[in-house]
Amino acid sequence: MRTSRNNMPQVNAGSMADIAFLLLIFFLVTAVIPNDKGINRKLPELCPTDTNCNTNINQRNILQIHVNAKDELLVEGRIIKIDELKSITKNFLSNNGDGTCSHCDGLSLSTSSDNPKKAVISLQNDKQTSYEFYIKVQDQLTQAYYELRNTYANSVFDKPTKDLTKEELQKVRMAYPFILSEAELR
């Protein structure tokens, strides 16, 4: 006679390792790896010792952009929407000092740059500025330069920037150098 103690049901665990392995592969293949957001910038080289690297910049060649703790964007002391920043920047860079701006909605650009090579974008952020808004501002500035460079490449080389040779691309970058001065508001 058999006792019921010896007849315990058993689970076949032989295929459990295979199932766990298949689930692991499934989740690794289907998982979306988040793309880190960041800013691709090349930092300027250090100033050599025994050299005065401070230069005087004409005030009309500086576009003052401030972002406060409430993520409000101020250009030349006037609050604007983030969508307006690209057109204001493009106009500042490419107007050759005439001060006219069709998209600036009453914003006085008396400090319009003499030419793109002398133009400096001065960006000041508050310590409490959100990172997301900071990235939006950087994106608008980058898009402004990209569009101006693409227009320049089409007019001078008769092709878009993506089709330029390294030498031609260097000439486009020299025509519209990305000069950005960043600081923190006090």
Topology:
Blueprint: H1 16-30, E1 62-67, E2 73-75, E3 78-80, H2 82-94, E4 120-125, H3 131-156, H4 166-175, E5 180-184
Parallel strand pairs: 1-4, 4-5
Antiparallel strand pairs: 1-2, 2-3
Helix pairs in contact: 2-3, 3-4
Number of strands: 5
Distance between the termini: 90 Å
Low-pLDDT parts are: 99-111
Mean pLDDT: 82
Summed up, the helix count is 4
H and E string: HEEEHEHHE
User: Considering DSSP H and I runs of 4 or more, what fraction of the residues is helical?
Assistant: 25-40%
| Integer-rounded radius of gyration | 28 Å
Global shape: elongated
Q: Largest beta sheet, briefly?
A: 5 strands, mixed
Structural class: alpha/beta
Strand order of the largest sheet: 3-2-1-4-5
Strand content: 5-15%
Features:
single chain, 186 residues, alpha/beta, five-stranded mixed beta sheet, 4 helices, 5 strands, 12% strand
Please provide a written account of the structure.
With 186 residues, this protein is an alpha/beta fold. The chain has four helices and five strands; from the N terminus they run αβββαβααβ. A hairpin with a 5-residue loop joins strand 1 and strand 2. Helix 2 (82-94) packs parallel to helix 3. It is elongated and about 100 Å long. The chain starts with 15 loop residues before the first helix and ends with a strand. The model is unreliable at 99-111 (pLDDT under 50).
